[in-house]
C-alpha cells in the first residue's frame, strides 16, 4: 500500500492558457519548448523561428521578420493569445498588460498563483491544480520563491509546509516541474534519513524549498 505525506497546496498557472503537462518530452529534452522549436527552424528552412528567453521558454511577444506581424503568446506552449496580433505599421500589443489572473489568484511576473489551505497528497494536489487549468507551482528564482512563500503565510504568521510542483518520481534524481518549465533553481534542504523515499517537493521546511517523500 502507498502512503503519501499530506500538506497544503500551491497552484501556479500561466495566464490565459493551460500549462504544459508533466510528461512533456520536449521540455524535458530541451529544457523549454521554445528551444526545441528554435532548433527545428534552423534545420527546416521556412519555419517560423520563435524568440526564446534564457530558460528556453517563449518571449511573451513574438514577431515575424518577413511579415512584420507581432502577437502575444503563452510563454510555455507558444500558443498565440487571441486578438493580440497587429499588422505592420501598428503599435504592437503590450503583452504584459494582457495578464489577467482569475478571481482570487495573485500575479507575479507573467504567472498567476493560488494558495489552497486544504490538506492533500502530492498527486491529489496536482490533480486539483489541473482541474483549475493549472499545475502545482514551479519556482525559478529567489524572488519568486520569497513571493510564493509569503503567500503561504496564514493569519498566525506561520509558514505551513506546502506542496509545489517538483518531483523525481518518473526517474530518480531527475527533478522536473509538473508545468514542464526548466528545472534549474536550487534552494534545497536534503534529508539524508529519507533519501531513498524523497520524490516530491514541499515548501517551508525551515522556511526553504525542501524535497520530501513518497512512501
From TrEMBL:
Domain named C-type lectin: residues: 108-211
Matches recorded under InterPro entries: C-type_lectin-like, C-type_lectin-like/link_sf, C-type_lectin/snaclec_domain, CTDL_fold, Thyroglobulin_1, Thyroglobulin_1_sf
Residues forming coiled coils: none
Cysteines paired by S-S bonds: 63-70
Keywords: Disulfide bond, Signal
Signal sequence residues: 1-19
Domain Thyroglobulin type-1 positions: 38-95
Entry-linked Pfam families: Lectin_C, Thyroglobulin_1
Name recorded for this polypeptide: C-type lectin domain-containing protein
Protein source organism: Gambusia affinis (Western mosquitofish)
